[in-house]
Amino acid sequence: MNPHLILLSALGASATMFASEQPRRPNVILLVGDDLGYGDLECYGAHHISTPNANRLATEGTRFTNCHATAATSTPSRYGLLTGQYAWRRPDTDVAPGDSRALIHPDQYTIADMFRDCGYATAAIGKWHLGIGEVTGGQDWNGRLTWTPRDIGFDYHYIQAATADRVPCVYIEQDTVANYDPASPIEVCYATPFAGEPTGRDNPEMLKLMYSHGHDQSIVDSISRIGYMRGGGTALWKDENIADSIAAHSRRFILEHKDEPFFIYLCTNDPHVPRWPHPRFRGQNPMGLRGDALASFDWTVGEVLNALDEAGIADNTIVILTSDNGPVLDDGYDDHAVELVGSHSPAGPFRGYKYSGYEGGTMVPFIVRWPGHVPAGGHTSDALMSHIDIFASLGSLIGADLPTGAAPDSRADGLDRMLGLADTHRPWVTELNNTRNLCIRTPRWKFISASPYPAEIGWGAIGVDGPILTGNQPYDQLFDMQADPGETTNVADRYPDIAAAMKELLIEAGR
Question: Does the pLDDT of residue 391 top 80, yes or no?
């Protein structure tokens, strides 16, 4: 049976009426904030911030309160989103340098391949951070790049190769550096600096935003980065214009493809460091630059919604808003995010932040709007769910025939859950912290296996309450999430049978 008929039947719509109208398959926009915390949006209880566009999305769709990214850092989380395979199944999916080789091989089937095979126009816009090229450090930034998003299902791409705090600080569009400046050829190195090129460490007087830890290498746009770079000329981005560039290219793709089905993997830069939003957002929030960056993120959401309205296709477009992992305050720049946070809780009621095995590391906002199909009116769902199921669930919706072995960890039975039509929980979700320690969560229990790695981030990353906790301890941890959602009390000794069962479940899940 056509999946559209199933969904409309569940909402009480007439299958006969649907069959006579035969609307085209819905467009899909997967909008992923960068380091956006569960508690960073007003509709999730945020203090000191106004997010009217995210609020609108939540009011016109369903807001989920128990959705988990697959990892507490960017690269492995995004790998899981695009491939439907847990990043912990591969040893090479940790946070990637800016000159990393492509982590997704062209032969690996992706969610973009799936949509393209079903007749969709596909685009990747914004942050990438999954590598480019066949060899780490072997990219030709001055010519045509290989193993780009076009090789894994995306018809169009306009991306940052890695993150805003890593070189190269240029956009890649259709396999080449956008606005390439032949008078200023690009060189990138992550091992040694280029002679004569200033760095944040040696030339702090040149910086408009001081680093706090790391991030003291090449200076681009008066901000020092991770890695060394020279050249770029007019191709170098201006940090204050990043949100505008991402939004403009997204709007253009929407308007150009409004008459055909499309899929956009749209990844904002906000509120990832370095936070240097456009002046129109500056100084308007009591939380300083991080608060301004959250306002910039919400503006991007509004630009997407406005483009859909302008194109007349909002009713036939699924918009999914989420984040790649939990939040962080000081992640390398002295932008006073810690001092100015006030009563705002970026991770909501949860313990931990980005990098952490505690819930704050992977519990993310998740809002879905599809007018007439997804419950609206401020509907919420507390169903346990995971990003890993987005791939197969959307495939089920559009009638995709996945090749054998594609999206091996993604479950199509999560479709009704993802659309807010069923409150049934996923049996369990896994969570990966920055040291690759694997945790498992069921609707009631959370288990973190013993780890020899440090209990705190050692290089300076800070949350509201000090250095970020990784979740690592030399002993097993069990938490009753119904009674203790903040993971304050380890009850492994009180419930040894449950701890043993959860440990076995974790072992089984990892097979």
Answer: yes
State pTM to two decimals. Answer: 0.95
Closest CA to 10 of 373, 369, 318, 371: 373
At 293, list the tokens.
């960056």
Bridge partner list, 29: 264, 319
Neighbours of 290 (CB within 10 A): 28
Beta bridge partners of 379: 62
Instruction: Give the gyration radius of the chain's Cα atoms.
Output: 22
Position 4 pLDDT exceeds 60:
no
Question: Residue 47: which pLDDT band, with cuts at 50, 70 and 90?
Answer: confident
pLDDT (tens digit per residue) in 192-208: 999 999 999 999 999 99
CA 330, CA 272: separation in Å to the nearest integer? 10
User: In this structure, what token pair is assigned to residue 424?
Assistant: 């049934």
Q: How far is CA 476 from CA 232, 311, 429, 446, 499, in A?
A: 49, 53, 18, 11, 8
Instruction: Write the single-letter amino acid at 331.
Output: D
Closest CA to 82 of 139, 144, 153, 23: 153
Q: Determine the pLDDT at residue 23.
A: 63
Cβ–Cβ < 8 Å for 149, 176:
no
Burial of 307 (0-12, 13-18, 19+ CB in 10 A): buried
Task: Locate 296 and state its tokens.
Answer: 């910039």
At 146, list the tokens. Answer: 């290989």
Model pLDDT for residues 429-478, shown as the tens digit of each residue: 999 999 999 999 999 999 999 999 999 999 989 999 889 999 999 999 99
Of 410, 373, 409, 384, give the one whose Cα is nearest residue 395. Answer: 410
Distance CA 477, CA 259 (A): 52
Residue in the structure block whose two tokens are 């569009």: 173
How far, in Å, CA of 324 to CA of 75, rounded?
A: 9
| DSSP output for 186-212 | -EEESSSPPTT--BTTT-GGG-SB-BS
SS3 240: helix
14-23 residues labelled b (16+ CB within 10 A) or e (exposed):
eeeebeeeee
Give residue-wise pLDDT tens across range 322-332: 999 999 999 99
DSSP string, 212-236: SSS--SBEETTEE-BSEEE--GGGB
